[in-house]
Amino acid sequence: MKQEFEKLAAAGKIEPRHIQQLVLLTESGCCVHRSWGFGKIKAVDTVFARFTIDFPGKPGHTMDLAFAAENLKAIPKNHILARKVNDLEAVRQMAAHHLDLVQLVLNSFGGKATVDQIHQVLVPDVISDDWRKWWEVARREMKKDGHYVVPVKKTDPIVYQAQETTPANRARADFRAAKGLKARVAIVTEILKIVSELPDKAAVAGDIISALNADIASYQRTQPAVALEAIFARDDLREAAGLPPADGEVTASQIWRQDGIKFGALLDTVPAAKHHRALESFKQANSDQWQEILRNSLNLVSAKLAKEFAAMLVREGKLGLLKETLARLISQHSAGSELLLWFGRERNEDFVDILGPEVFRAMLTAMERDQFAEKRSNRLRDFILEDQELIGELTASADIEVIKDLMRALQLSPVFDDMDKRSLLARLVKAHPAVQSLVSGEQTRQDTSLLVSWESLERRRVEYEDLVQKKIPANSKEIAVARSYGDLRENHEYKAAKEMQKVLMRRKDELENQLARARGSDFSNAKTDVAGIGTIVETTDLATSHRESFTILGAWDSDPDKGIISYLSPVGASLLNHKAGDEVEFELHGAKHRHRVEKIEAWKSAAPAEAPAAESPAPSPEPPASTSA
């Protein structure tokens, strides 16, 4: 064909520089186009100077020879793509010999290819069934064969080299090439899979352990979590090779006993797969006080770690201690969102005496508390929305008044948007049909308005103005600046700014909704024949004969130290519309209380005469869904 192409060049139909490429294309019979992919050359027309090529989806495509020379790359006959087209059945039979097929693919791509590239070229044409199983066998065989370099990262290419290297030398070379102790630990994890098959495993393990010990000693203070991982890998390698411990090497107990070690923070940086082992080593290092440290840290760690802490306490016969800690944190509404996320997921029969409506109240409080903090309350919120049975199970044994109060708290909560609230309320109604009237009809329309003090209303307005005029514009500038840093996939500043944008916009919507429903009042016209908003109610606890005074004010007013409560709180709602001499009962922090109303007076008349209402100390604002007394 070379002579034919030379004649075409002489006739001016192609350029002389195209001849060699056209000869290669004609001899190989296969090619690749950057857009259309692999093609098989079916015919060469020297009269009209064109190829006829079969591309995927473009059979019988004609292409000018000059254009083909510029845009097609010749594929050798032994290339995997050519072999598949010319003799697919032979390639399929080759799959039974894993290394032969892998070598063919690697050689086709210049001696190296990633797992994704190998998968793309073999599946489904060559390997149609159970690629994962086939690849695991191929991977094991490559690690035993001295011609293949199999990286730890799946994104790095597998390399075929003609010069064979023994597995022992490969293990040493990979370990030495790894940069940093973290990378070396990953290499040791791979070596552990083949160390039992090495003929000189003691020598290989000895070299690696010696290097690990030197790294561990230098990392133990600066990166204790990485040092701890390395200690586990070193000990596993030593056991697999049958070697004794070296004199003076750093142990896991020494890591835990270092000054300044922060228990929870260290564990959070240890991979989840190593949490159990790390906790066991911690227990051995702190045999006298480990359980107390776990208890104190339970509310400070992630949901995964909370699960590990709880599992260890249960294994060691400390279930009672765990339940006591959980009950205290829940009743005080001080449980964090991560702890409650674990507890909500766990909720098995071991904790049946703790599970109840107070758990859901504590969840609302935790999410409201976390709204503007850099915490993960959205994980708890997502869990509540996804778990269809959660609310029904937590409220199964609650009486109707508790359910009503919980519904009010949910309706006023800033954590969920209106659609999510409707979904959660529907679940409550499904579990407790008697409360249907609270989410339909006139009663619902009345409940949507909020009576608030002028002081708390002004605070919400100031917050809204600050949000709209300062925080949201500042966040928009942060997004613009972060966007200028480049690649948005790896731009952490951009991601953080966008997450904050979601928080700010959600809060803006919440404030707009609340302000639209709020009705300000100075409570100056409060009636005193019955307990109402703007009254001071003196009661006697019938169990202790202790006198208490409650000042019932607006939806956003609460200062328990001064006896100021919201009319939406459990105590406030229970006292409303009761007169002197009535006995009222309410549930607070899981316990029932019974009080007798002794006296009712107007809050304004009881305020100091010299202090105008507008200048009197304003009660502390309470979140709309407050469950405090």
Describe the structure.
The protein is of the alpha+beta class and about 625 residues long. About 50% of the residues lie in helices and about 15% in strands. It has 29 helices and 15 strands. It has a five-stranded antiparallel β-sheet with strand order 4-3-2-1-5, sandwiched between helices. A five-stranded mixed β-sheet has the order 13-12-11-15-14. The longest helix has 30 residues, at about 455-485. The N and C termini lie far apart (about 95 Å).
Count of individual domains:
5
* Secondary structure: number of strands: 15
Helical segment count: 29
Parts with pLDDT < 50 across at least 5 consecutive residues: 441-447, 607-629
Helix/strand class:
alpha+beta
The radius of gyration computed from the alpha-carbon positions, rounded to a whole number of angstroms, is 36 Å
Backbone shape: elongated
Distance between the termini: 96 Å
Can you summarize the main beta sheet?
5 strands, antiparallel
Strand percentage lies at 5-15%
Q: Quote the average pLDDT.
A: 86
Spatial order of the strands in the main sheet? 4-3-2-1-5
Helicity level: 40-55%
